[in-house]
Sequence to fold (387 residues):
Amino acid sequence: MSGRDGRRHAEIAGAGMVGLTAAASLARRGWSVRVHEKDDQLRELGAGMSVWSNGVRALKEAGAYDEAVELSDDLDSWQLRDHRNRVLQDEWMSRGVGESHGILRPRVHSALANAAVRYGAEILTGSRVTGASPEGELILSTGERLGADLVIGADGIHSPVREALGLTKKKRQLPDGGGRHLIPRLPSDPQNIMIERWVGGRRVGILPCTPDQVYIYLCCPSNDTKGKDQTSSLDTWIEMFPELRHFIERIPLGGEWRPFTDVVSTSWYNGNAVIVGDAASAMSPNLGQAACVGMSNATALAQALDAFPTVTEALAAWESSERPVTDATQKYSRFYGWIGTNWPRPLLDVRSALIWSLARSTRMQSRINVASRHVPTLGTPLSPSSR
Fold:
C-alpha cells in the first residue's frame, strides 16, 4: 500500500500530542500522513506540563521544539517537601536528566499541529474512528475503510483502535487523581523550579509555565470527598497547606478532579496497525512522564520505520526497544502515587525518611529517571534543519 504519489502512507487516529508527534515525525521522513480527530476542532485539554529531556528530544525530532518552548520556564530543579515542609529531595533534575521545561499543554499541542501541517500531514477534524484491522485499514464511523502501509492508534485511554485489534490486557482506574489549574503568576513566585508538597494523602504541585502563568495541581485519593471537590471550595486545601495559601487562593473555582488510569496492552501492534501513547500505555502523571513517553515512543516509531526494510521488522524492533522503558516508568509512577496517597498517617515521618533515602540512591534515581535518560537508538534522529 502506498499513497497516491507513491510514498508510504499512514492513517492516524487521534490528533492529541502523541498522534501529532507521530504525524510530524513521519511526514518529515517522507511519509504521506493523514490524521483523524473526532472533535470538530483541534484542542488540548489540560493546563501545564513538565517536558523532561525525552520530551524535549521528541519535540526536536518532530520539528516543533522552537515554537513549543518559547516563553516556557527552564526547569533546573524538582523539589519535594513533606508534611513538615522539609525538603526531601531537590537533586533529581541535576543527575544527568538534561534540558527540561515547564510549558502550557495547549502550546505544545499547537506547536506539534503546526509542525505536522508544515511537513505535509493532513489533519481532518470531525472524523471519528471506530476501529482498525491488522491488514492496515482504519475504520471510520461512516463505515469507510482507509487502507495504509501503517495505521496508528493514538486515540487515548478508551482507544477504539486498541479494542478492535484485541490488544487490551488491562485498563483500570487508579485510587488517586487530581485537578489541574492555571493561576496568574506573581513576581514573587518561584522561577525555574518545580515544587511538590505532600501532606497525608494529598499533594500540591507548583510549576511555572510562562511569564504570566503558573500550573498548579491538587492530587488526592479517590475516597477524599472534600479534596476531590475543586469546583465549589478549596478551603480544606488551604487548611492543610497554609504556607501555599497565596497560590491556592488564586485558583479559579470550577475546576474538575479526574481519576488517573493505567492501560496495559498485550502488544503494541497487530499486523500493520500499532497503538501509541495513552492507547498503549496510559499512566498516572506522578512522574510527569505520560505525554513525554508517548511522544518519545512516537518518534522512535518513525526512526524504526526508516531503519528497517519492512514494517513488520520495524514494529518488532520498536516495541522490543521502547516498551521496557515505558513499562518501568508506568510502574514507578504507580509506586510514587501509592506512597504519596495511601501511606498511613501515623507513619508519615517514616515515609519522609524513605523518600529522603531514595533521593540519595544513584541506582534508584537511575530507575525512576529511566525515561528521561533514554535515547532511542533504532535509527538516525533528524537534525532541526532536516525537512
